[in-house]
Amino acid sequence: MMLHPAGSIAVIFCAKRTTIDEAGYQEAAAKMSALAKLQPGYLGEDHARTENGLGITISYWKDDSSAKAWRDQPDHAATREKGRDKWYEFYTLHVARVERSYDWQK
């Protein structure tokens, strides 16, 4: 976990997975995570998944234009379409501005 500066953008992706093509999904997810890290303005990401396939990924971006550039990145756009076709029952996406960020660790 890392702190994100005030004014940065959080893209919150909440999705329910299908049971179709687990190996293909895992490969694509790893590829997209690696690709996101190469994008200008990328600040980090957090992930969580339940046993029943509900997952949340939050990616953090320097500003809104960086987040939009990631949305429009061609490989990401193609993978998103594949996800709609095969890997997700549904998803929601929320874009929010980080107002404050705190960290605590034992």
UniProtKB/TrEMBL annotation:
Q: Determine the domain of life of the protein's source.
A: Bacteria
Alphabetized, the UniProt keywords read: Monooxygenase, Oxidoreductase
UniProt entry tagged with the keyword Oxidoreductase: yes
Q: Name one GO molecular function term.
A: monooxygenase activity
- Domain annotation ABM: ranges: 25-81
Entries under InterPro entries matching the protein: ABM_dom, Dimeric_a/b-barrel, Jasmonate_Hydroxylase-like
The protein here is known as Antibiotic biosynthesis monooxygenase
Source organism: Parasphingorhabdus halotolerans
